[in-house]
Amino acid sequence: MATIKDIAELAGVSIATVSRVLNYDSTLSVGDETKKRIFEVAEQLSYKKKPAKKIETGKIALLQWYTEKEELEDLYYMSIRLGVENQARQLGFSVSKYFQDNFESLKQDDVQGLIAIGKFSDKQIKEMVSITNNIVFVDTSPDEDKFDSIVIDFEKATQKVIDHYLEQGHENIGFIGGREVFKDNTSTIEDPREATFKTYLAEKGRLNEAYMYIGTFSAMDGQSLMQQAILEHGDNLPTAFFAANDSLAVGALRALLEEGISVPSRVNIIGVNDISISKYVFPSLSTIKVYTEQMGETAVNALIERIEGRKIAKKTIISTQLILRDSSF
Fold it and tell me: What is the mean pLDDT of the chain?
């Protein structure tokens, strides 16, 4: 595993700066470009393959629903993006990056296909189809009969965490989650982790909705939501929490440690994604590993198949794995 020293050397910053950035230290005053460089280096060092240098054979577009600033709060999408970019370069394709408010510029670009990372409204999807029929969606599957998609079974991932907690004897389990809306504000997006947490725990007779806290998918909200839980429940705080992503989990860890609540002897925390920073926070974060690099690679491979003439849509579900580290038993 790459060390914080390795990251610091490649990013051109101090070890202390890397440590504080990876731990989402809100008191640290560094620019977004420095944070972005540190996070990207950390993600790249976790990849097993290095992109080969090949002569460019084509050009594809990468449409992101997160801005670069939003990526810094939820590294899940940054990690997928890097997987796409690495695989495209390895196969000889250049990548043009766009955000979803920039369809007009995208229409002027001569691309052979489009990879859309994130969640998009029906209106936005129509915009994409007006540009190209070669589209692959990553992290969502809007129409399985028309479009290729690369997704995660978050329902099963959530069940893995709950099953683990119940097997460990936890009777009170909390949830720290987030909500999202389409960028054109057409509707709210239901999170399958939140929905599954409620239905699955209810089936087990263990659901207490007073232990559920919802904000955005950021470390800042993870911290504030856990602070709220500590204030409201005191000595009756659940002994285990499932955080819907690692950023929320890192923030929740910070809140617990600031209040002197021991992790994991008093409270267990498990996140989702296994982004690079999960190994470097203290205590190191238990999490559901989402193979984001493979999501990006698979998206590129699927798009090339489309470019080469495949007409039948296919949906690929990437598996997950529960990784236990120091934040839970």
Answer: 92
